[in-house]
C-alpha cells in the first residue's frame, strides 16, 4: 500500500505574538524552534518512521523552499520529501500538493505542520481505518460543555458524546480526495479541513479514530511551553527505552 503525506506549511502564523517570534527568530509558527529544530521538521520526523509512507509533500511559500530544502538534505531522511509551492489558503496548498502525487497512490494523509506530537500508533490506526473505509480522521471528544450561541446568548447545549474536535492526520483514498477538491473548486467551496470537502460528496462516511490531547496544534505563545514539556518527555522516554 502506497501512502503519501501532505503537510501544508505556507501559512503566516498570525496568532503568535511578536515576543515569541523574536525568541525563535521567526514570525512563522511552523519554523519556530523546538530543541533546535523547526516545528515543521519535528513533524516530518514523525512520519518518516511509518513503513507505509512512501512520500511526503510539503507545501511552502516560494521564499522558504531553498532554505528548507537545505535543512532536509542535512537530515538525510529515509523517505523522499518533495517541496511544492503553497497557495494563499490551506485548501490551495493541499491541492497543489495533490497535483504532484502519482496516480497509483492508495491513500493520502494530510497533517498540520504544527502538530509535531502525533504518535506513531495513532498514525497507523487512522491509516488502517481509511484503508478499510475510504476516509478517516483523528479526533477527540470535547471535555468542556459546548454551547450553541447567537451573539452572546445561549441557544442550546450540544451533547458532547455526539461531538468531535477534529485533529490530523486526515486520511483518504487518493481518488476520493482528488474528486473532493475538484468538486470544491467547481462550486467555489472553501472548507476548514479536508474532511469537510469529502463529506460534501456524500460517497462515504468519514470515520473518526480517537486521538490524544497531546496532539496539540501550536498556534499561540502558551502552546510553546507545553510543546517544550512534551518534547522533553518524549526524549526521556526514548532514552529510557
Structure report:
With 241 residues, this protein is of the alpha/beta class. It has a single domain, classed as Alpha-Beta Complex (Spore Coat Polysaccharide Biosynthesis Protein SpsA, Chain A), CATH 3.90.550.10. It contains eight helices and eleven strands. It has helices at residues 18-24, 39-47, 62-75, 90-98, 120-133, 174-187, 194-201, 221-240, and strands at 3-8, 33-34, 37-38, 53-60, 81-85, 107-110, 135-140, 146-150, 153-158, 165-173, 207-210. The strands form three sheets. It has a seven-stranded mixed beta sheet, sandwiched between helices. The protein has a two-stranded antiparallel ribbon with strand order 2-3. The protein has a two-stranded antiparallel ribbon with strand order 8-9. The protein is globular, with a radius of gyration of 18 Å. Residues 17-27 have low confidence and may be disordered.
User: Helicity range of the residues?
Assistant: 25-40%
CATH class: Alpha Beta
Unreliable spans: 17-27
From the coordinates shown, what is the CATH architecture?
A: Alpha-Beta Complex
C-alpha end-to-end distance:
30 Å
Oligomeric status of the shown chains? single chain
As for the number of domains, it is 1
Amino acid at each position: 500500500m502506497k501512502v503519501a503525506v501532505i503537510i501544508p506549511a505556507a501559512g503566516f502564523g498570525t496568532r503568535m505574538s511578536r515576543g515569541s517570534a523574536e525568541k525563535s527568530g521567526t514570525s512563522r509558527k511552523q519554523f519556530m524552534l523546538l530543541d533546535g529544530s523547526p516545528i515543521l521538521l519535528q513533524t516530518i520526523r514523525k512520519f518518516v518512521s511509518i513503513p507505509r509512507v512512501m512520500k511526503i509533500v510539503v507545501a511552502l511559500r516560494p521564499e522558504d523552499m531553498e532554505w528548507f530544502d537545505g535543512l532536509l538534505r542535512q537530515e538525510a531522511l529515509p523517505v523522499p520529501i518533495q517541496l511544492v509551492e503553497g497557495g494563499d489558503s490551506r485548501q490551495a496548498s493541499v491541492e497543489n500538493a495533490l497535483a504532484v502525487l502519482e496516480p497509483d497512490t492508495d491513500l493520502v494523509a494530510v497533517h498540520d505542520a504544527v502538530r509535531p506530537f502525533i504518535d506513531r500508533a495513532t498514525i497507523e490506526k487512522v491509516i488502517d481505518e481509511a484503508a478499510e473505509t475510504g476516509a478517516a480522521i483523528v479526533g477527540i471528544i470535547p471535555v468542556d460543555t459546548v454551547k450553541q450561541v447567537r451573539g452572546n446568548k445561549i441557544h442550546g447545549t450540544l451533547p458532547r458524546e455526539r461531538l468531535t474536535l477534529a485533529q490530523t492526520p486526515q486520511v483518504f483514498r487518493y481518488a476520493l480526495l482528488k474528486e473532493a477538491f475538484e468538486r470544491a473548486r467547481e462550486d467555489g467551496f472553501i472548507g476548514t479541513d479536508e474532511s469537510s470537502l469529502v463529506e460534501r460528496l456524500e460517497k462515504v462516511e468519514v470515520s473518526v479514530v480517537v486521538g490524544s490531547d497531546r496532539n496539540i496544534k501550536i498556534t499561540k505563545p502558551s502552546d510553546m511551553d507545553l510543546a517544550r514539556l512534551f518534547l522533553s518527555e518524549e526524549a526521556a522516554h526514548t532514552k529510557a527505552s
